[in-house]
Structures are given as C-alpha cells and as structure tokens.
Design goal:
Blueprint: H1 13-28, E1 33-34, H2 35-42, H3 46-56, E2 71-75, E3 78-83, H4 95-110, H5 117-131, H6 147-159, E4 161-169, E5 174-188, E6 191-198, E7 203-208, E8 212-221, E9 246-251, H7 258-261, E10 264-269, E11 275-280, H8 284-292, E12 298-302, H9 304-320, H10 328-332
Antiparallel strand pairs: 1-3, 2-3, 4-5, 4-8, 5-6, 6-7, 9-11, 9-12, 10-11
Helix pairs in contact: 2-3, 4-5, 8-9
Length: 335
C-alpha cells in the first residue's frame, strides 16, 4: 500500500472543508472507485482529490492514534475507505445549526477589529443562501455596549480622523478630555475598545468604548508618531507586571470567582472555606473601590495602606448612615 503524493494547490479553506466532509461518505458508498471517476463526480481535479485523501489520512477522532484515524486502501488507481472515524454521512445542518451559524457570522461581521470583514460577509452570504427562509428569521444581533458609539468610532478609525473624547478612567475614578489618533477598533473579553495614540499621555492607550462619555470627530487626520504600535492583547487587556502594587486578600467561598476573573499570582487555602489570594492592581485607589464592592466575605491582608484606606472609607460610609463605627461590617473588610 502506498500513500498519495502530496502536491501544492490553491483552494479556499471553506471549499476544501466542505469537500472533505462529504468525501468520506461518498467513498464509503463506492468502495474501490477509480480516483479519476471520483474526481469527476466531485468536480475537482485528480491532483486535488489526491491532496484531499492525503489530508484525510491524518484526520480522525480525539486521541489521534493509529486506530483513531481515517484509513483507506489503494489498489492501483482505486481507493476504498477501510475506517471512517464516524464520518459516515454527508454533513447536513439542522435548522437550529444553520440559524446559529448565521447569527454568529452576523456578530463577527459587526465586531470591531475584524481584519477581513469581506471574507466573513462572503461566507455569511453563502450560509444565508443555503439556509433559505431561516436567514430571514427575526433575530436581532447586537454587540455589547453602545453600538451607535461603536459604529461612530469605527467610522472615524476607517476614515483616519482624529478624535476628541471625554473619558472616564476607572482606575483613578476621574474623567478627562483628550485628543487621540485612533489606530484600530477591537473586541477583547466581550468589550469594544479603541486603541489610539493619546496626545495627552504621549503613548498608545486602550479606551473602553462604554467609558467614552462624549466623542467629537475633528477636522484633521489621525497622525500617530512612528513609535505608536498596536499592543499584543492575546493575553487580555490587563497585563500584570512586577512594578504594579501587589495586594493580598482573604476571601470566602462566595468570592472565589475572583481567582477566575482576575490574574492571581498566588492562591492558597486558608482556614475553613477561606482562600488567600494575591494579585497585581493598577493602583491602590482601584483596589480600595474593588474591595469595598465585594462585601463582608473579603479581608485585606496586605498592604497595610490599603487596609487603612478601606477601613477609613467604610467607617465614613457607615457614619453617613449614623451607624456606629464599631459595627462588625467595618471590621469585616480589614484586619
């Protein structure tokens, strides 16, 4: 038995995937078919068919051991599938699957930062054509946040215009006005951002769209300096570094979600159901507001400065409600 010789060839990934999904059941129904005949039936060249067979040879079930992969036997120019790895019928989408694909592609087409929107739209057109009446189903696709603002910012980015924005910075709990030169729109963690050169900070900054209170498109082009480069956000927006403040908290069972939502440097079991977690924060002001919003199952272990800030603000808040300063709620969030 000899394997087909792989050759280079041009094809789209979508077309090839569709062909591969239908190829195995086609061959199963025609054991010993000549490759030339099969190529004619499938509307491809013999070279393309041999390349597809070569790829199928290394496809199969998870585990991907020899006994899990699609196998075939060759007798001259004839081919027979000897193991199908469960791909024994042509792919047919159910109505729900087809509608899910349409919705997903519509969402991707509207997502900021999509590099090749034209390719997405072409794929969507093909799926909608195949889905028939389902494509017109009354399903509205919306992105998180202010979609009107996203569209406005995306138009400015694509038009190469500078922007004046009023922006709320949560880490410092302040609102500022600044002029930015947009570089790109993108979606990270389900939130829309505009990445831009900030003339005030003289650096590349990432602005969350839902924290932009006002935006004005300026009558001047966006001109970022040569050193302005998009950041690598493959690991998320927040990237902890050793120069950022490290805080340590003792948390109860109800607050363990912190360890999944935030990058923690250390997570240890404490007494009972308690965990002790350490994480980097942008500044202690943000950490103070973060801890105060968590509730009584969180205790600040370190640094002492943060514990004092939390204690002082909790005491002031309770005083505003004429609550005695010795209330257990104050002690619950600090040591």
């Amino acid at each position: 038995m000899s394997r087909p010789t792989p050759r280079a060839g041009s094809r789209t990934s979508a077309d090839r995937l569709a062909r591969l999904l239908n190829l195995v059941p086609y061959l199963l129904a025609r054991p010993g078919i000549e490759i030339a005949e099969a190529a004619g039936d499938l509307g491809v060249s013999e070279r393309q068919l041999r390349e597809d067979l070569e790829l199928l040879w290394v496809c199969g079930l998870p585990g991907y051991g020899p006994g899990d992969l699609i196998d075939m036997a060759f007798d001259g120019d004839r081919v027979t599938i000897t193991y199908d790895a469960g791909i024994d019928r042509p792919l047919r989408l159910t109505p729900d699957e087809a509608l899910a694909l349409v919705v997903a592609l519509r969402m991707i087409a509207e997502t900021p930062g999509v590099a090749n929107r034209e390719a997405v739209e072409r794929a969507l057109a093909k799926i909608e054509s195949a889905a028939g009446d389902l494509a017109g189903a009354p399903v509205e696709v919306r992105l998180p946040g202010d979609t009107a603002r996203v569209r406005e910012l995306r138009a400015a980015v694509e038009g190469g215009r500078a922007l004046r924005i009023t922006y709320y910075t949560a880490a410092r709990d302040e609102t500022t006005e600044r002029v930015i030169d947009p570089l790109r729109m993108l979606m990270v963690g389900g939130r829309a951002y505009v990445e831009a050169w900030c003339r005030r900070a003289e650096a590349v900054r990432l602005f969350r769209v839902d924290r932009i209170d006002a935006v004005a498109v300026l009558d001047e082009p966006a001109v970022a300096p040569p050193q302005a480069r998009p950041q690598d956000l493959s690991d998320g927006v927040f990237r902890p570094s050793p120069d950022l403040p490290l805080i340590t908290l003792r948390i109860g069972r109800g607050e363990r979600w912190i360890t999944e939502y935030y990058p923690c440097e250390r997570v240890e079991r404490g007494t009972g159901d308690e965990w002790v977690v350490s994480l980097r924060v942008t500044d202690l002001g943000w950490a103070r507001r973060f801890v105060l919003g968590l509730g009584p199952d969180v205790t600040v272990v370190a640094p002492a400065e943060l514990a004092e800030q939390v204690r002082a603000q909790a005491t002031a808040a309770l005083a505003a409600y004429a609550t005695p300063a010795g209330d257990p709620a104050v002690a619950a969030v600090t040591q």
